[in-house]
Amino acid sequence: MDAGILSILLQAPLYLGTLRLMVPITLPAIGEIITERSGVVNIGLEGIIMLGALASVYVGYFTGSLALALLAGILAGACVGILHGIISVYLGGDQIIVGVGVNVFAYGLGVITLYLTWGTFANSPLIPDSARVPDFYGISPFVILTLISGVAAWYLLERTSIGLRLKAVGENPKAADSAGINVFRIRFIATVVGAIFAALGGTFLGLDWLASYTRDISAGRGFIALAMVVFSKWNPVLAILSGLLFGFFFALSLAIPSGIIPDQLVWSLPYAATLLVAAGFFTKTRVPAALGRPYKRE
Amino acid sequence: MKISANLENYLKPVMESAISLLAGFLAGGIIIWIAGFNPILFYEALIAGAFGDLYSTLNTLSYSTPLILTALSFAIAARASLFNIGAEGQMYFGVLAAVAIGAFIPLPPVLHQLSIMALAILLGGIWGAVAGWLRVSRGVNEVVSTIMMNFLALYLVNYLATYVFYDPLQAYKTKSILSSAELPIIVPGTDLSLAFPLSIITALIFYLLLWRTPLGYEIRAVGLNPSAAKYGGIDVRRTMVVSMFLSGAAAALAGAFEVMGRFYYTDTGLSIVKNMGFDGIAVSLVGRNHPIGIILSSIFFAMLKTGIQAVQRSTSVGGRTGVPLELGLVVQGIIIIFVSIPEILRLIQGIRRREV
């Protein structure tokens, strides 16, 4: 191996970068696992990340308050989650189409807001320091939040009766319904919770990493998160590990000077790996049985 | 009685699409209003900008060309109950085919264009069929596989454009295609090239294929009820893979035509065609996955594009750009969200009844 690459591999910034790069893909992935285990797909993660970032940067910029900025990001996620939940759970609409619509809408709204507010098409000015997320002993609190969320989500799904009911709804909604579980309510709540997690990923980008909003702020992270859900076999703890793995690849592609390995090859790895895992070439995966299918009472 | 029932069958989807479009325009109007413009004047300027004279009308038609093809791509898979959101990546292979053959292999005219189209159909078709194969033989949902494959296609074509097909004089783009590979402009002074009639012909072929051939019958039967189709003796797996091939082929033609009839090269980041594959989803949904509906809704979405460009030009003052083009995306996003609501007509009627 090239001596240059070896020295990069031995440096601390690469691993600190990995920890940070893990956050904005892992939080949405954990949320999406909760949503998908209940039987609902939300491919609008990309858009929700943008809207979460946009809302928190906007509020953070004008109020200078971290608390209000965080709240705005969470609210933006909740709003999209409620919209998605109403259409796909209660009205039985097509979950994929709603997600596509959210992605298109969010990108457009982001650019328009940039232009109307700051007169630019590229990126907002930095938010004031008071609205930025302070580091905690050199590590972003979002890193800790991500780790705790993953473990907590795993505990919720595998060790509590709420988790049992949520999975029942995602596997066999009809049976769950006849057992007296409110299929619609559980799916709706799981969709809103998932969307809030995705928005938190965006909030991290806006209030922590970039401290601003840029037009391509999400840069495909919502789709990586969707990939991670499959890659980690709908397990939130494995989602943390795959987040670290994918985060490492991205940190590596940033750290390696261009020309040694084509960037395109490094960027392709997460998607290629996910495709292979989904196709069962390494291990067997099992998709929640009722995933993507609206439930209707007969 | 029979006639009116028939008419209702046609009218209902048209009405539902119309409601979605209306909702998109209303919500867009609110944002325009918040932005400090008069929505009515804005929409007047938009329509005038898209259809005000022959020149702008033909340009609008020209912009509808790639949308027709990517929408057909979505529709033919949707007719077989497959959700192909991979038109974006499949389209990139058409761009690749156009640049590879158009700029690097000298051929006589006609043969040159036909070779590009053949390679585009082959590459895009195979890329689509792989997702179809993964679905039927490995159980990979096509939504997951096509999302992954969009990124793989982007990086692969981006790599080839950057390192193999680049222009040594201007490294941000590939070499331009030879004039023998161009699709000629059919009305001088406009952007309307031969690509437009070719895409209309493709739509008609898709229409005939779906409703006048055994393959089309099989595709629609699989889409309506896969298990019934199977008992009816249809090879469901083969039908799905074939429809994904056709889907990828149509998307690739969109990419090839944009190079052959408009830009004559691509930038290495593929921004000349970016998102047109995703645009096709909205176009097809509003057109109810029907080739004729798709032609109409393509023209509508193209109007949104050329119209807003015109409004931007007219509202630009002293180096400051006017209304952002992305306004069209906001309207488009809202339209898609409304299209996803089933039975929207009944819902509205229900609300009205409750009020009475």
- Poorly predicted runs of chain A: none
Given the C-alpha coordinates, what overall shape of chain B results? Answer: globular
User: How much of the polypeptide of chain A forms β-strand, as a percent range?
Assistant: under 5%
- Would you identify the CATH architecture of chain A? Orthogonal Bundle
CATH class of chain A: Mainly Alpha
Query: Sheet bearing the most strands of chain B, described?
Result: none
> Which strand-content bin applies to the residues of chain B?
under 5%
Mean pLDDT of chain A: 91
Series of H and E elements of chain B: HHHHHHHHHHHHHH
- Helix percent band of chain A: over 70%
CATH class of chain B: Mainly Alpha
Overall shape of chain A: globular
Indicate the radius of gyration of chain A in whole angstroms.
19 Å
Greatest interface and its participating residue counts = A-B, 49 and 50 residues
Number of strands of chain B: 0
Class derived from helix and strand content of chain A: mainly alpha
Quick check: average pLDDT of chain B?
Answer: 90
Give a brief rundown of this model.
The complex is a heterodimer of chains A (298) and B (356). Chain A has 298 residues and is an all-alpha fold.
